[in-house]
Amino acid sequence: MDIMEQVTAGEVKRKGKAAKAASLKMVNLSTAEKNKGLELIAEQLLAQQALILTENAKDLQLGKENGLSDAVLDRIMLNEKRINDMAHAVRLLTELQDPIGETLETIQKDNGLSIQKKRVPIGVIGMVYEARPNVTIDAATLSLKTGNAVILRGSSSAKYSNMALVKIIHQALDKSSIPADGVQLIEDMSRETARELFRLNEYLDVLIPRGGKNLIETVIRESTVPVIETGAGNCHIYIDEHADKTMAEKIVLNAKLQRPSVCNAAESILIHEHWLRQNGKGILEKLAEQQVEIYGDEQVCSSFPSAKRATEEDWAAEYLGLQVSVKTVQSVDEAIAHINTYGTKHSEAIVTSNEANAEKFLSSVDASAVYHNASTRFTDGFEFGYGAEIGISTQKLHARGPMGLKALTSSKFYVYGDGQIRE
Amino acid sequence: MDIMEQVTAGEVKRKGKAAKAASLKMVNLSTAEKNKGLELIAEQLLAQQALILTENAKDLQLGKENGLSDAVLDRIMLNEKRINDMAHAVRLLTELQDPIGETLETIQKDNGLSIQKKRVPIGVIGMVYEARPNVTIDAATLSLKTGNAVILRGSSSAKYSNMALVKIIHQALDKSSIPADGVQLIEDMSRETARELFRLNEYLDVLIPRGGKNLIETVIRESTVPVIETGAGNCHIYIDEHADKTMAEKIVLNAKLQRPSVCNAAESILIHEHWLRQNGKGILEKLAEQQVEIYGDEQVCSSFPSAKRATEEDWAAEYLGLQVSVKTVQSVDEAIAHINTYGTKHSEAIVTSNEANAEKFLSSVDASAVYHNASTRFTDGFEFGYGAEIGISTQKLHARGPMGLKALTSSKFYVYGDGQIRE
After folding, report:
1. Which residues in chain B (161-180) have CB-CB distances under 8 A to chain A?
2. What is the ipTM of this complex?
3. Which residue intervals define the domain Aldehyde dehydrogenase in the entry (chains A, B) (predicted)?
């Protein structure tokens, strides 16, 4: 290990240890104490706009020098409105119910033992994320609301913004009962600190990556700390033989076009061959009118000649833009099999008036959210009424689908006796 | 990759793919269909005792030739009673409530969308375990009861027994509606197959290791598949200043001695210095009378000279035998800090009549189960009334503490609309 690596090792371990120590105190914070800390953070964000904008300008300047695209620069960019939005989101969090302390199960044993399973904080949460500096505030305040300490590792392209935001959080927490050590930012952006964070099992209870496919795959591949996989959405709309034409078109256009860059947007349309023959042209024309490039199978291309032929890659693609793959199927079973082969277990919809086909689709498609006659765009913590969202889990363990505050909690058995021993 | 490795690679991928395909069918099995399959397994276990005993004898013979200890040979050994017990456990499973299909949450949106969060199988579960062949039956039947496919990788020392048991399971399932492919056994016991299983993210949803510390650490270090950590228990009993003498002795002796080889047995006793001065000698003598070796700090050793001095390793040790570490503390806070430093987050107890100290201990100690005035030996799926146990989770995600059937489930959002789109 050379000297630079030793310095590096120092930061992650030191901050991990401090976060762990803070988390052990944070389990006993009251809801009022946590909300007070959040309110102070919101106030400081508004009071220190000038500092935030100055530091953000440094990131933007460096980003331009490094040739970042306008889209990425826009994600990094903060302005008065965006800072106000961040502060507003923090204040909304104070109004949400505190999940900590909830009794999840009560077991009364014949021997007099009383067992209560209660909701508790997870401990220390690691967040690894890309460009947007507002994730720094989001992740920190959602963690604090649920009594968790957090270690943040943002993008190097938002380094100055993130440092300013965490400085503001620390100043706010210093006036509260929440230990400021409960929020840690990794400032050394080398690969070594990332690798160390991925293997910080001694102090970290979970890692949540938020960002593109590469980031998420790297975290899954390299982590020994448990990971909650968030993410990729190759979402399908299956238009059944028994689908209403108007409803199918409305749902497909919404799922594809309302916000094409997000994970719950549709990337692939499956159409029953009968429906395609009768109604297919209309929907394909409407997509094309909106500048959507269509990648179709043979039948689609022959009924709509301006479509290009889809390759194997298209069936698996998460375009996140104005492209869509379109495939003909002969039955709901073929649609289910296709989705279970190419889908990413995010959000999948069927449009049909046939209840049996709907039921089969919903129970057989393996995804975090399955829809009957509605757009996949609703898979979202706010739309589901959770009032917050730390990400959308596409894995099966711990949390699946939109993750609200409860996804940042664990449980603990409290056992009360008066001298019971096991016979 | 040489030819043997290619064959090896073939087995894990092929069985993983088959298990995944089976799991997609298994989500639609009814409770009656699953119970019928379990009943057939129980019947076949009893009907084919001769086969099981013949194959088990091969493992025992090889084990003797390989110089396995009597303790390990006893774990591998099956006899008529043990086979009857396995069949009985499978029949008990049929009586347990099926958790699949339970509605966990209902959300009614103003736009008419109806969202139901329902309990579903996880998908494909990987079990990696040591010696005991009964885990083969346990893991397979708990997985089937919850609609999951399972890939089993037992110990090479029980290879013939495991192959016989899985053959019997397959014969039983062939007469049921459960696809026999839902239970897969890895037969090639090389390191390569283990490594492949740890990275089988394409087909595996979770890995559960059951066994010693080395096995669990290897699985955590090498897996990219999500792992549920089970296991190690360095459990403490803290005897507070305000502890009843008789109760403290009864609990300590039970937690240490009722079954010293298991994870919820006590390994370390923390004693408040006032209590030690007044009552300590009695308890230390009683432990010594039962052949327990005592590793104490300076105060303990001076009040009980036959104790040996504890080292740093003793505070962290999971002895699983007739040894105990004993430390003097000056306060409940010191006890909490010691446990949060050396504990394994399994089961921790306080003996006291002081409610404030009890409350502080229970809320501040970071463990899956915390006890007030009771033995740690109760941390167990059967004792908690779950009727089954796949292991005891010592991590914070997904499941914590004894894992019953519900720990083998995930959830899925069913969203019902009539054409809703996002505005």
Report:
1. none
2. 0.94
3. 6-291
